Amino acid sequence: SGDRPPVRYSEPTLAARAARVLRDNDTGAVITAAPKLYPHMWSWDAAFISIGLARLDVRRAITELETLFRAQWRNGMVPHIVFTEADAYFPGPDRWGTENAQDGPSNVRTSGICQPPVHAIAVQRVLEIARRSSPNERADAERFVRGIWPKLYAWHRWLVEYRTPGSAGLVAIVHGWESGMDNSPRWDVPYDAVHPGAGLPPYVRKDVRVVGDPSERPTDREYDRYLWLIEEMRRAGYDQRTIVENSSFLVGDVFITALFAVSCDVLVELGKEFGQSGEQLRDLAEWAANARQAVAGSCHSVSGMARDRDLRASRWLDTQTIAGFSPLLCGGAPDDVQLQLLSLLDSDRWCGHPDLLAPVPPSVSPMRPGFNPRQYWRGPQWPVVVWLFGWAFERRGWHERARRMRDGGIRLTDDGSFGEYYQPFTGEPLGSTEQSWTAAVVLDWLC
Ligand code: 2M8
Questions:
Q1: Nearest C-alpha to atom 13 of ligand 1 is from which residue?
Q2: Which of 38, 173, 403, 410 could lock onto 34 through a cystine, CB 3.0 to 4.6 A?
Q3: Are residues 325 and 365 in contact, defined by beta-carbon separation less than 8 angstroms?
Q4: Model pTM?
Q5: Range with lowest mean pLDDT among 27-31, 225-229, 343-347, 394-398
Q6: What total number of domains does the chain contain?
Q7: Distance between CA atoms of 325 and 195, rounded to whole angstroms?
Q8: 175 CB neighbour count, 10 Å cutoff
Q9: Residue-number span of the structural domain to which 340 is assigned
């Protein structure tokens, strides 16, 4: 049914188009996550964007990460949105109302939650790219790494101090938006226990006006819950301890935990090279080990898939999604479990499904009930997730697997529209087009 532009761009033309998307989305101060749908800076988008930018201009990439970290909260949290002046997105800064939060930054308006900790990965990538370009860029990048390392450490420490409650050791989220996979079926059960109160102030969604087909976006029922959780946090003055204690949503996120483990490893590597304190390096190594163990400990005894944990209801969430493959990102699962996950990933339930346009993992298996090929995090393929798996596979020495992610990712995106996500069978771009992080990962694949 879908319409994918019939054209397939050659790699050089695709790279040129990707570069143009990043330049066009540059407001001067920030690269917006997408020109119409997301006219602000998002935390994990900015990390991926900086990787793509480094291919064009290392200094511009550094500025992007520095801008994000200037919005870091005093307690260490890196906020999920740094707002520009644009008015086209809801919920904007007034609805978040973080200006009175004790730990919030001065000078800049932000949301009051976080997103996956992929920033150390981006910093290391920018450094690698800079070292292969010019001596000046190399010097700039090295200066930048020294400056940002303590901020990255503070961000990771915040995740441990405030967000590792409960015995499972998983990093917890207090809002589905923190996972980055907003309406993934991973969160359906915990969201069922979120009951928007009568005190929920009225609101008007703006996203469904931008995206032509509202069925590609979350439902209104879901939005009520998203907004209710913000209301709870606002009432708690964005005090983390109060939120973690009381919010009606608290879930150990296995995908974030895996990314945290590997990001801690990366920070240790950078820290050793740049002479950071032994005590902090020991902290990071310990956090990585604990996170890895938590990921391995979440694996289902039959399927092998890693699971999130509902910390309010004290139960594992068995919904199978792309996040079930988290142990492949960070390692640490027993060999038999890892083999089981790899063969599942290759099977016709995932990348080997015969009807996929590109053999890369969708957000939910096409064989699962509830799979929806067009709806956001409930089925489509996301180039940025493909990049993450490819990056992790390369790091783990699985070069052939990494190459398959790259080639599949290029196949998915070679229509040149830089969709936010893609219908897995037709390759139709969905959600936003000219999405910055899609352009960024394509640039990284192609350069
Ligand atoms: C999506 O999330 C925002 C809320 O944060 C939204 O739907 O309004 C997600 O895909 C998220 O992972 C991403 O960072 C953001 C911007 O691309 O959009």
A1: 180
A2: 38
A3: no
A4: 0.98
A5: 27-31
A6: 1
A7: 31
A8: 25
A9: 11-446
Question: Does residue 1 lie in a domain region?
Answer: no
- Over range 268-275, report the average pLDDT: 98
Ligand 1 pocket residue status of 182, Cβ below 6 Å:
yes
Please name the amino acid found at residue 196: P
pLDDT of amino acid 1:
42
Mean pLDDT of 247-267: 98
> What is the complex's ipTM, to 2 decimals?
0.99
Structure tokens at 292: 């890895």
For residue 10, what are the CA distances in angstroms to 4, 304, 413? 16, 39, 11
pLDDT classification of 2: cutoffs 50, 70, 90: low
- Say if 2 falls within a structural domain: no
In a domain, 339, yes or no: yes
d(CA 46, CA 82): 10
What gap in Å lies between CA 254 and CA 306, rounded to an integer? Answer: 7
- Whether ligand 1 lies within 6 angstroms of the CB of 48 is answered as no
Return the SS3 of 378: helix
Instruction: Indicate which residues carry an active-site annotation.
Output: 182, 420
Work out which ligand 1 atom sits closest to the CA atom of 377.
Answer: 10
Question: Domain containing 215 — which CATH number?
Answer: 1.50.10.10
Domain assignment present for 4:
no
Compute CA 433 distance to the chain's CA centroid, rounded to the nearest angstrom: 18
Atom of ligand 1 nearest to the CA of 180: 12
The protein residue whose alpha carbon is closest to atom 3 in ligand 1 is 177
